[in-house]
Amino acid sequence: MCHVIVTCRSMLWTLLSIVVAFAELIAFMSADWLVGRAKPSGPEETDHGSGGPQEPYRPTLGIYGRCTRISHMQFSRRDTLCGPYAENFGEIASGFWQATAIFLAMGIMILCTVAFVSVFTMCVQSIMKKSIFNVCGLLQGIAGLFLILGLILYPAGWGCQKAISYCGPYASAYKLGDCSLGWAFYTAIGGTVLTFICAVFSAQAEIATSSDKVQEEIEEGKNLICLL
Fold it and tell me: Which residues, if any, are the signal sequence (predicted)?
């Protein structure tokens, strides 16, 4: 018989697992890893509200995507265009970024799998006599290691020609040049930290769902068990 067991710690672990997976996925897909040096607006670009020129814009560059401003001469204006600059994996600007993409993708796949499985931990607490929380916690730890490897390799690619075109001639491996780090990079770091927190917290979720109070509720014949 399936017993639905919901505790404060198990629910918190489930929510954190889902948040971490989405955060890493969004960061990986974003083009805001590097914010390029400011480029002045052209003379045709004016702020029609104030009549003055627009502020310089800063293009952004991701692992495989970018955001830049394109001109529409017939309308005397420019629009920001975002999309992948690489049509296939081999066109990613740096070999280090290719390795980063592989490690991040592997970590994110594991995190998404764990996030999917975590939803069902309310009904299923073990697989082949193994605690599903402990198995998921181990997978999250492995995913965290993949994410760390990807984040360590990513700055090594700052010396590629693509990065130099955005960050200036002084950009090199682990040196930003005229660029700054975008929100996607910080989100990936924060998600990696939370991944290890989830891995540790999975043990608390397992303890909460196998506590004496839960066993007493099961012995009383309750199918829905909610404990703080």
Answer: none
How far is CA 157 from each of CA 57, 62, 174, 190, rounded to the nearest angstrom? 24, 11, 8, 21
Q: What is the pLDDT of residues 108-164, one digit of tens each?
A: 999 999 999 988 887 776 777 778 888 999 999 999 999 999 999 999 999 999 999
Q: Is 72 inside any structural domain?
A: no
* Two tokens, residue 122: 């309310």
Q: What is the pTM of this model?
A: 0.84
- Does residue 57 fall inside a structural domain? no
Indicate the residue type of 136.
Answer: C
Which residues form the domain of 184? 4-34+93-225
Strand order in the sheet with 77-84: 77-84, 65-72, 60-61, 34-35, 180-181
Q: How many domains does the chain have?
A: 1
Identify whether 152 is part of a domain: yes
